[in-house]
Amino acid sequence: MITTWLIYLGLGSCAGLLAGLLGVGGGIVIVPMLVFMFTWQHLPTPYIQHLALGTSLATIVFTSFSSVRAHHAHRAVNWQVFRRITPGIVVGTLFGSWIAAQLSTPFLKIFFIIFTYYVAAQMILDIKPKPTRQLPGLGGFSVVGGGIGIISSLVGIGGGSMSVPFLVWCNVKMHNAIGTSAAIGFPIALSGAIGYLVNGLSVRDLPAYCAGFIYLPALIGIAVASFCTAPLGARLAHRLPVSRLKKIFAILLLIIGTKMLSGLLAG
Length: 267
Fold this sequence. Notes:
It is a single chain. This protein is 78% helix and 1% strand. The chain has 10 helices and 2 strands; from the N terminus they run ααααααααββαα. Strands 1-2 form a two-stranded antiparallel sheet. A hairpin with a 2-residue loop joins strand 1 (210-211) and strand 2 (214-215). The chain starts with a helix and ends with a helix.
């Protein structure tokens, strides 16, 4: 049991650094690691992916809150964008968590693997949309926020891999895009966690220490560590060559995605 807690704490430390450094909630790493951990712990196979997604989003509530405080201190958060996109984010994320509850674990795994490869390619190729337009109005923000929310809830992430490129495309500077993305991750995570909690309450045969599709021991271990390390990642974002770090992170994502794919095919 001690080994399990240490692994959760280590995973949370990495997630917190990623949240602050790259503007992601860390879910892109947390989800596959939780899948591996839950399989190792022999949790019910039909719900492993659901538990990983719900727990990931619950941990990002704490990670993003800590990260956004640090980015706000650097004046890197555009709060006007945050206010406009949040309603669409909340609706989309709640809807996405309901959709996920209706889907099987293999389907959710395949969707996550495809998304992992997409994020890795985006980082390796250094795909940056040209800042060719201005920020949209409330209607545009609602549509974009809804889409980001749905996809984020299906893959258990804070949405940074989508919100950062969108903001850069809309002429928001990179550091501000990262900081604002960290803030956007909070309503994504909160509404997503609530959705997975509610949709999992009626499911039988979930393991002990679960609140819906949220596995509480993993949530506590990861949240405590990530809350402490997210401010460090935010400070490093203003000092380190983020583009180079993204390529290293992309290689890690390719390894993770391939490992999940091989496990899925072997099963």
